[in-house]
Each structure stands twice: as C-alpha cells, then as structure tokens.
Amino acid sequence: MMDYTIDDVRHEVQALRHAIYQGDLFNSLRVDVGNLLAALRPGLPTPVAGLTDSDEAALRSLATNLQTQLAQETLTTVATNELLQLVTGLKTTEPTVRDDLAMATILDLLQQGILTAEQMQELARYLLRDEMILAHIDEQASDAVFLRSSSVYLLMMIIFTSRQNGGEPLPLELQETLIDTLAVYLVLETDTRGFVDDKGWAHAFFHVALLLDALAEDPSMTRADKIFLLTLLLERVIRLDQPLFAGEFKRLATYMVNLMQMSSFYSDYLLNIFKQWRQAMIKESRPTDTAGWNRFYNQITLLQNLMLKENLPEPIYDYLNEQRHYLS
C-alpha cells in the first residue's frame, strides 16, 4: 500500500474491526495492525488552505460578539451556521485566532450549555469529515495538524460535556462514524510536534489520548472497540520515527491505567502486548539511525510513565518491575 488513499485505509480498518467482532483476530490483532502500519508511508505535503483575510475578519467579529454576550450572560442560543463558522477558525496557524477566539468561544458555548444536543451532534458530524479530522493526514508533517488536533480535542469535549450534563450518548450511527474515523486517524497520524513557534500547540497525540480516555468511560462502547482503538494507538506510537516529549506519554499512561481499572480484561490484554514487545526487542538488532532510536525510546518512555502510576494493576507493575533493567 505504498500508493493508497484514505478510503483504502478506511476499508482496511473496517475489515479489521469486523474481524474482531467475528472473533477471528483477537489474538493476532497486534500483528495485523503492525503489518498495515508498516505498509504505509506518508506522501509529500501539499498546500494547506488557511483563512482568507475577509473570512478571518468575519470570524473575529463573530467570536468577539459572542464572547461579549457570554460575559454579560445575555446569550441563550447560537445559530448552527455561526457555530460552524467558528469551526473554520481551527484551520489557521495564527494561535490568537484559532485558540483564543475560535476554540475558546466554542468551548464556552459547550460548557455554558448554550448548544443544544442536536447542535452538539451536528458539530461532531462536521468535525468527523475527512477535510477536518483527516485533513492532509496521509502526508508528511504540515500546518494541517492544527486542524486535525483541534478537531480531536473538540470531539473529546463534546463527549465529556454531554456526559457531565447528563446528556444522551451519541446516536449509534454517529458513534460508528466516530470509531471508524478515529481508527483511520490513529493509523495515519504521524505528526509528533508539541509546541510550534509562532503557531502554538499541535499536540496531536496528547489530544487523541484525551479522546480515547473519554470514549473508554462510555458504557455503550463495546470491549472489542476499546481494544481495537487501544491496539491501533499503541502500534502507531511505537512506530513513530520522531520523539514525543510534550507530556504525551504521561497522558497516554493515564488513559491506559483508567482503562485497566475498569476490568482485568484490559490489563491482561496489555500485559500480553508488553511481553510481545519485549520479545520483539530481544530479537531486533540495535538501532543504527535516529529514527530507530526514537522508536526505541518512545516505547521505553511509555512503559516508564506507566510504572509511575500509583494505581497501576499489580500484574502489570510486577512485570515491568522485573524488566526494569531494560527500561532504565
């Protein structure tokens, strides 16, 4: 799959997910995911569309007006077209527009209960479009990461806010779209940047850990899907050629421990994965390039962060403690 489209990857992950539900792949899931990831290489970056001057001016005016009404506690509703206009601000690399105006206003609308359940679902559907959460994801690192990462973060906030306010879970069809699209995202995301000078936080892997944590708490989500997404995440992380260094591993470890606290089913599964990782590292020769050493230390740092968690299940701690010479 050196030449592939996002739809090709979507087809592959849907097939993997279907096979898990049929009970065909549970024990070999990690291997099958690894084979898929090994076959993919990002293409060269293409131009990323930002905001025109007129669109940015209109966005600034709208966000400022809404923030003023929110501060005065006079805003009770917002039109859906205005909400989606705010979302367009997530594509800019100017952090004062993307984060301080567009994102901040959307978060205030969410947290202050201005958005209806229907608007939250419409927002989620919009964020799950390929041109949003998957924008340029099949290419090398580019400014599109800000749009992708912001989309992931907002999806997490929609789920968290709805749950916090006692709202209904996402409709089944929307949850299915979320899982399938997030699976594609996990397979293809390779941008490890944290803070980018003059452009703000990219933080893609930090944000996706937050989203996975929110989904893990959803009782309507099946064990199979939680295992599926967990495996995609782990196999992607250990294949990253660049280091993660801006708090991602601490956040990833929190998600994994929270999941393991729900059932020994997850800790048993992770223990098996960690043993497979160790066996693979014994068989592999020492890295000979920067990318290889980055992959090695990404894996080690994730396990080190897990060991620092006070509520780590005992079997996991005991195994990692036995391997401490390899983790040092």
From TrEMBL:
Keywords recorded for this protein, A-Z: Ribonucleoprotein, Ribosomal protein
Gene Ontology CC: ribosome
InterPro entries documented for this protein: DUF2785 (IPR021247)
Top-rank taxon, per record: Bacteria
Record's protein name: Ribosomal protein S2
UniProt organism field: Weissella halotolerans DSM 20190
